[in-house]
Amino acid sequence: MKKSKSKSFFQNLIKPFTFNSGKEGQNEEDLEQIAQQEQKHIPFETLVAATKDFHPNHKLGEGGFGPVYKGKLDDGREIAVKKLSHSSNQGKREFQNEAKLLARVQHRNVVHLLGYCAHGMEKLLVYEYVTNESLDKLLFKSNRKEELDWKRRYDIITGVARGLLYLHEDSHNCIIHRDIKASNILLDDKLVPKIADFGMARLFPEDQTHVNTRVAGTNGYMAPEYVMHGHLSKKADVFSFGVVVLELISGQRNSSFNLNADAQSLLDWAYKLYKKGRGLEIMDPALAPSAAPEQVAMCIQIGLLCTQSDPQLRPTMGRVVVMLSKKPGNIEEPSRPGVPGSRYRRSRRPHGFSSTVGSSGDSDSLTSESTFNTNTASASASASISALASPLRSDPHGKRPMQS
What we know:
The protein is of the alpha+beta class and 404 residues long. The chain folds into two domains: 2-128, Phosphorylase Kinase, domain 1, CATH 3.30.200; 135-389, Transferase(Phosphotransferase) domain 1 (Transferase(Phosphotransferase), domain 1). The protein has helices at 2-14, 24-37, 44-50, 89-101, 135-139, 150-170, 224-229, 234-250, 266-275, 293-306, 317-325, 374-389, and strands at residues 59-62, 67-72, 78-83, 113-119, 122-128, 175-176, 185-187, 193-195, 202-203, 211-212, 231-232, 347-348, 360-361. α1 runs antiparallel to α2 (24-37), α6 (150-170) packs antiparallel against α8 (234-250) and α6 runs antiparallel to α11. The radius of gyration is 22 Å and the shape is globular.
């Protein structure tokens, strides 16, 4: 009886999803088989007992889908139960999307879907409980950000990169998350990052460079070509990842960056300082005691490469993981970061210009001012870190945002 209910529930979940490829029927059959083989159906009574009948004291939060509760199974595992609100159309779509896309996803840096439940009108998704909640709660709260020293931030950058590489290249189907941001990165008890909230994620056809879709995401993290034209590709996730990298280094939110500063955004501020050979000045003062200057400089450069205006110039997540796994060294020069609402210009790189990112680039990436790379970083690193060790003061040039 339970197996029959499980099959029926999953069939209903996958009905709304169609693909512009000939593999549609095969995908649905595969997912249905996965649902049966992995036996992910969890009885409603089990979840009632685990959450103390969804007691308000167990409520972790609420999203467009409905409330999320913390629970504990009989075997001792802690869980997070996402309960679909009966009145939420947006939540229904997000709920169905998560159940479908995460059915076969298993990676250390992606939140694990343990199972699902359908009981009358009740529909629930069950995840592993992640102890430290989301990255934004540590990074942007001044009383906790000291917990994130440079090694931990670097490990978070690397972990998120590996999680995205898995979604883009190594999962059963290519998955584009569409909403990578600090609040959708959960941290476990060892501060290992886990990408979460797949309500807006999309399967990506292998034979297409991009798909046109309804724009959905968070301001400050969405790639300009996606915001302007609805062009969605893996490079949209790369852009969002680059924003998170620069947020982790600076301790500043891109979405609420001080607009009175001499920069349009965190990305613009970082790029302008980078071009002047002063990239390390964006570093969070809290990192001063623990920072490895050359590694920080390399990550700033990677963040800027990922947020370039031209999506063809942005590296793949595979390339990012390779760059992060090596010692700091010469990597490509970033061109100007993308700003939603502005157009990017593509031009051919001069013959002999070495790059593994793309075949075209913004001409200003070749100017003499842009030669601040990880090899030159160490020269000014000591002075930069000494300056950052003191309490944050207002920059005489008005370029540093105020401490939140």
